[in-house]
């Protein structure tokens, strides 16, 4: 989440820097002769959709859409008496995103603790000394890997709200990686699976990506993985086309 916030701030700063020195070409009547009014309507709507997706996919939380529209209108029409001075725009956005990030990280911790407390009471779920939880979905008939081994797996990783953030099934191919090169929850969890079997891992944030998170995974996220253990390559073997997760 923190990296996402920083990326949004950097991108917004770049847009503002460019817009401050770029020629103001937004004005009624400024169109190429071959562009029709219908085409103007279509591209205008498309731009609205584009910017809405940027806002919706960013961690701003609740927004006042009326004020969002007003800010958009004032910016396009170069209003001089705006509600926010241009030199304070980035500071306001940055402070808001940082506050939302801290709140989200804290909420994820609470939700994760509540989920794990309830989940460990479910049938078939085992909690280990580290706090990792797992459930055997299908008992395999092969060997179990050690933390020094390499495994070939198919898997799907989800946040607690069901959002899929990674899936080898979607990519259409299995993946090989050494168990000593992934998050702690995977390293430990896969030792409870057997070749040919399936396991579900419930990984607390401290055994995953911690308070910082990574990519689409917000800080303090408890993660759920469905994993199919296809093959175990003992530490003395070297699998072909080895890929690190």
Summarize the structure.
Helix content is 38%, strand content 18%.
3D architecture notes:
A hairpin with a 5-residue loop joins strand 1 and strand 2. This protein is α+β, with helices and mostly antiparallel strands and 245 residues long. Helix 1 packs antiparallel against helix 4. The two termini are 20 Å apart. It has six helices and seven strands. The radius of gyration is 24 Å and the shape is elongated. The longest helix is centred in the middle third of the chain and has 31 residues. The chain has two domains: 100 residues, no CATH class; 114 residues, Chitinase A, domain 3 (Roll). Strands 1, 2, 3, 4, 5, 6 and 7 form a seven-stranded antiparallel β-sheet that branches. The mean pLDDT is 87.
Q: Give the DSSP E fraction (strand runs of 2 or more residues).
A: 15-25%
Write down how many β-strands occur, each being a DSSP E stretch of 2 or more residues: 7
Largest sheet: 7 strands, antiparallel
> Which CATH-level-2 architecture of the largest domain?
Roll
Give the termini distance in whole angstroms: 20 Å
Topology-level CATH name of the largest domain: Chitinase A, domain 3
- List the total number of helices: 6
Taken in chain order, the helices and strands follow as: HHHHEEEEHEHEE
Return the average pLDDT rounded to an integer: 87
The number of domains: 2
Helix content: 25-40%
The backbone outline, from C-alpha atoms, is elongated
Structural class: alpha+beta
Low-pLDDT windows of residues? none
Radius of gyration: 24 Å
Q: Any idea of the CATH class of the largest domain?
A: Alpha Beta
